[in-house]
Specification:
The protein has helices at 47-64, 85-95; strands spanning 4-6, 21-24, 27-30, 72-79, 102-107, 116-123. The radius of gyration is 14 Å and the shape is globular. The protein has a single domain, classed as 60s Ribosomal Protein L30, Chain: A (2-Layer Sandwich). Helix 1 packs parallel to helix 2 (85-95). Helix content is 22%, strand content 26%. By secondary structure, the chain is of the alpha+beta class. A six-stranded mixed β-sheet has the order 1-2-3-6-4-5, with helices on one face.
């Protein structure tokens, strides 16, 4: 693999064979983040609580790579029910500001009681001279 795999502080270590975040050159790519707390437990059966945890986890991944939400250029989101789409957008706006990154949102069958999963691609900020 080209790049550096990171395990962010406060993020459950994956049981499956993947890295939560990889930095390759100026790009930061996250795995799909779900509503696990730091101990690997699902935070809640409620959509809004899961969405907040997902974005908090995504923020941990970005921070470990020296980025923030403002550096994200692409988001892929997966929700189990589009009835939750207005709530998803409301929470999303708390983490991202205009101009928003490009985004694809797909209704998907997620396992394990998860209602939402989000992955992102970011570009590291330029280093100050």
């Amino acid at each position: 693999m080209e790049g550096q795999a990171l395990q962010p502080d406060g993020l459950a270590v994956p049981k499956a064979p993947y890295s939560p975040v990889v930095v390759s050159g100026e790009f930061v790519v996250t795995a799909g983040q779900v509503a696990f707390d730091a101990d690997g437990n699902v935070v809640s059966p409620e959509f809004e609580a899961q969405a907040r945890q997902v974005f908090d986890n995504l923020g941990r991944c970005l921070a470990a790579a020296g980025c923030g939400f403002e550096h994200v250029i692409k988001v892929n989101a997966f929700v189990t029910d589009f009835a939750n789409f207005p709530t998803f957008n409301a929470v999303y706006r708390e983490y991202f500001q205009p101009p928003y990154p490009v985004r694809t949102t797909v209704q998907a069958g997620l396992a394990g009681g998860f209602l939402v999963e989000v992955e992102a691609v970011a570009r590291k900020p330029a280093e100050s001279p």
